[in-house]
Design goal:
GO molecular function, one term: oxidoreductase activity
Number of strands: 21
InterPro entries: Amino_oxidase, FAD/NAD-bd_sf, Flavin_monoamine_oxidase
Radius of gyration: 22 Å
CATH topology of the largest domain: FAD/NAD(P)-binding domain
Protein name: FAD/NAD(P)-binding domain-containing protein
Bound molecules: flavin-adenine dinucleotide
Shape: globular
Strand order of the largest sheet: 6-16-17-18-15-19
Number of domains: 3
Helix content: 25-40%
Structural class: alpha+beta
Largest sheet: 6 strands, mixed
CATH superfamily of the largest domain: FAD/NAD(P)-binding domain
Strand content: 15-25%
CATH class of the largest domain: Alpha Beta
Distance between the termini: 7 Å
Length: about 475
């Protein structure tokens, strides 16, 4: 490809800014990143309260986040944030000891440990190739991509067992006779908003929580950033030759030999287009996302594929509690991580140790796909209401023994709210029918490339890594 090609990138989250960085490193400097809001970082969102940055979006990484390491090297930012502290609690506030080796159920813990070990071995052997970047070939029983390692060497092979990854993670674990591992994988998955194991294909669960990453979680070997995860992307943006153009409202994109974009009422012409914004088409009942077809001339093929995408309704709010009731650490409520407890608070996150008055952040989910409904039926069914679940969550907080501070009118005081378009994905049926192979076959058609969360997984590293992968493949 001509290194002077003019390239438009839609979105200045990790995927879009990462695409800019990797393009530059390949010698493509004629790119423009369009961002519709007045800031960069997307779901890495770290607002300042009382002089300190907090996390309303992404919180942490691990040492196997190699693409994040690329960004750290490019910007000089380091993971210098507070260590994550956590305890488990029952919904009534009592400490939940089920994972405490000293106090509870040793035979169960030994069984669990054996299954985790077996699972690690299975992933390495039976599911060889499961942890490469992206999903190319998986539904056809092969793998093709870049290995997840510092060197990210290209690998490929045939492995018919990989087809099992289309199954919901629950079925996948049962098939492999390691059902107990769900008890451990669930904490950084369901409570982090990625849905329930009876609805989400194993491919996604293991894209994020590959064995290496999961062991880092278990050993609490996690990274945070003092100035917030958003600061990594603010630094990246400021180091790029072409920082993002903020407040860019795109109303129309027409593709032909060239790509014509109408932005803030003016037309601009490009050679190539990389979309990291949501690909879902149609009306999206979400305040931050718009259907791709509301501004792009989507083809029939794109419409058919992108209509299969769904996302998680994962919302956060911040509140303060009475000083003397301040918890000693963040806490997980494992009993709230089931489809039956949809809408309840699953995690309460406290960023700084020994600092009362800082806000706690609560996390909840609002929709679940039942196994017996089709994707269409599920899509037509209503989700739990935003305000309704906020109220449920506030009640949870009180049951946990915390008292939220009140505002001047005597209502529970909410310091900040963040509603997102979270973890776009497809369900097992479409995954098994080759959704990814069909979308990957479209890369480059109409001068258009697709990146961002849906193409691999909704975490910082996977989105950055996919942008790197895309540029390696298509922008030689
Ligand atoms: C509460 C929460 C906790 C999380 N915790 C973690 C964590 O601990 N670790 C982790 O790795 N990940 C975490 N994540 C996930 C991580 O933040 C996302 O996966 C990542 O930010 C996705 O990057 P992206 O660039 O694909 O999308 P986004 O971050 O969503 O960025 C997309 C950007 O595109 C812009 N945009 C959208 N439409 C348009 C348009 N039409 N025109 C122009 N611009 C547009 C948006 O404004 C946004 O800036 C968390 C997310 C949330 C919300």
């Amino acid at each position: 490809m001509d290194k002077n090609s003019r390239i438009a990138i839609i979105g200045a989250g990790p995927a879009g800014l990462g695409a800019g960085m990797y393009l530059e490193q390949k010698g493509y400097e004629n790119y423009v990143i369009f961002e519709k809001t007045d800031h960069v970082g997307g779901k890495c969102h770290s607002p300042t309260f009382d002089g300190k940055r907090h996390e309303m979006g992404a919180i942490m990484g691990v040492s196997s986040y190699y693409a994040v390491q690329d960004v750290e090297a490019f910007t000089g930012v380091t993971h210098d944030g507070p260590k994550l502290q956590r305890v488990f609690r029952y919904p009534n506030g009592k400490i939940d000891h089920r994972f405490d080796k000293k106090l509870k159920n040793l035979p169960h813990l030994f069984k669990l440990k054996r299954q985790i070990k077996k699972f690690g071995k299975l992933l390495e052997t039976k599911y060889k190739g499961y942890d490469i970047c992206g999903h190319i070939g998986v539904s056809e029983g092969r793998y093709e991509g870049f290995a997840v390692s510092p060197g990210r060497e290209p690998v490929s092979g045939v492995n018919p067992n990989l087809k099992d990854l289309a199954l919901p993670f629950k079925e996948f674990c049962e098939l492999n006779k390691v059902p107990l591992v769900q008890e451990v994988w669930i904490h950084p998955f369901t409570s982090f908003g990625y849905g329930y194991f009876d609805e989400i294909p194993a491919a996604y669960v293991l894209k994020y929580l590959d064995f290496q990453t999961m062991m880092n979680f278990m050993n609490n070997n996690l990274w945070t950033w003092k100035e917030g995860t958003q600061s990594i992307f603010e630094a990246l943006n400021s180091k790029l030759k072409n920082p993002a153009r903020l407040n860019s409202i795109i109303t129309k994109i027409v593709r032909g030999e060239k790509v014509t974009i109408t932005v803030n009422g003016e037309e601009e012409v490009f050679d190539k287009l990389i979309i990291t914004a949501p690909l879902q088409v149609g009306k999206i009942d979400n305040p931050i996302a718009q259907g791709l077809d509301s501004y792009l001339d989507v083809t029939e093929k794109e419409r058919e594929l992108f209509s299969k995408i769904d996302y998680e309704r994962y919302d956060t709010f911040a509140f303060n509690v009475e000083k003397e009731k301040y918890p000693e650490a963040s806490f997980y409520v494992v009993d709230h991580m089931t489809p039956e407890t949809l809408g309840h608070g699953m995690v309460f996150y406290m960023r700084w140790k020994n600092e009362p008055n800082q806000p706690l952040i609560s996390y909840r989910l609002r929709k679940h796909k039942n196994r017996d409904e089709t994707v269409e039926e599920y899509k037509q069914r209503e989700e739990l209401g935003y305000e309704e679940t906020k109220a449920v969550c506030l009640e949870d907080i009180k049951k946990l023994g915390l008292t939220p501070l009140k505002d001047k009118d005597g209502n529970d005081k909410i310091v900040y709210e963040f509603q997102t378009y979270y973890f776009p994905h497809v369900f097992s049926e479409d995954y098994a029918k080759g959704w990814y192979e069909k979308v990957e076959a479209l890369q480059g058609e109409n001068n258009t490339y697709f990146a961002g969360e849906i193409m691999s997984f909704g975490d910082i590293d996977e989105t950055l890594e996919y942008s790197r992968d895309l540029i390696e493949r298509h922008f030689a």
